[in-house]
Write a structure and sequence with these properties.
Keywords: Membrane, Transmembrane, Transmembrane helix. Helices cover 88% and strands 0% of the residues. The protein contains two helices and no strands.
C-alpha cells in the first residue's frame, strides 16, 4: 500500500477507536458512526483503486 493509503487506513482505525470510546463513555451517536462508515468505505475504495 502506498503512503496515502496507509495514512487513510490509520485514520480509519483511529476513528473506529475514538468512535467506540465515545460510544462507551457518552452513549451512541449515529452521525459519528455514519461518518466512520463513510471513511471506511473511502479507505476500501482507495485500496481497490491502487490494486487495479
Amino acid at each position: 500500500m502506498p503512503g496515502s493509503t496507509k495514512t487513510m487506513g490509520a485514520f480509519t482505525i483511529g476513528g473506529l477507536v475514538m468512535v467506540t470510546a465515545y460510544t462507551v463513555v457518552l452513549g451512541s451517536n449515529g452521525w459519528l458512526w455514519f461518518g466512520w462508515v463513510v471513511l471506511g468505505l473511502l479507505t476500501v475504495a482507495m485500496v481497490f483503486a491502487r490494486a487495479s
